[in-house]
Every structure is written in structure tokens, then in C-alpha cells.
Amino acid sequence: MKSEYIRLVDSHCHNCLRCVRACPTNAMTYLNNEPRIEANDCILCGRCYAACPHDAKTQKSEFRQVLKWLENGEEVILSAAPSFAVIWENIG
Question: For the domain 2-60, what is the CATH code?
């Protein structure tokens, strides 16, 4: 489910609305003093995550699982959103 990949940490939100302004699909909303992600509209671009200066968004990472597969010699195909920098050094 999409909502598992970017999550909100309400206690860190400072109501700056930078995430809302950054969202190209208007999936990031702010209603009744609470930030929300409309999962059906979210394209997982990561712009809300990148725009937030207060760490009020978290992203799911499967980095450790990928490393485990690589260490076991398994073939891995990686797909990452273009808004996130992916750095792979000394692997393989």
C-alpha cells in the first residue's frame, strides 16, 4: 500500500505547509490542523519528504534487505523514485 512508504509524524509537524505546496498532485493536504496524505493521489515522488525541514515525514527503506540479498549473491533490480538520491558504493 502506498501509505506505507511515506508516513507522517504529526508530533514533528510545525504547520509550515511546505509539504502541501511541494506536492504536484495535491495528495498532501492539511485539514483540521492535521497533515494528511491522500494515498490514491500520491505518486510517491518524495517532494513532500524533501520539502519538510522538521522531519515530519518518514520514508520506508528496504536498504538492509537489499544488502542482504546482494551479500547472498542474489540478483537485485532496484527501482527508486527520481527525487531520491541513491548511492551505492563498494557493493558487488
Answer: 3.30.70.20
Q: Could you tell me how many helices (H) and strands (E) the chain has, helices first?
A: 3, 4
Cα dihedral 47/37/57/43 (nearest 10): -40
Nearest to 70 by CA among 49, 44, 91: 91
What are the tens digits of pLDDT across the range 72-88?
999 888 776 655 555 55
Sequence ranges of the domains in the chain: 2-60
Question: Whole-model pTM?
Answer: 0.65
Going by C-alpha positions, the residue among 49, 34, 46 that lies closest to residue 80 is 46
Cα–Cα distance between 6 and 60 in angstroms, integer?
A: 6
Conformational region of residue 57, where left means phi above 0, alpha means psi within -120 to 50, and beta covers everything else: beta
How far is the C-alpha of 14 from the C-alpha of 88, rounded, in Å? 33
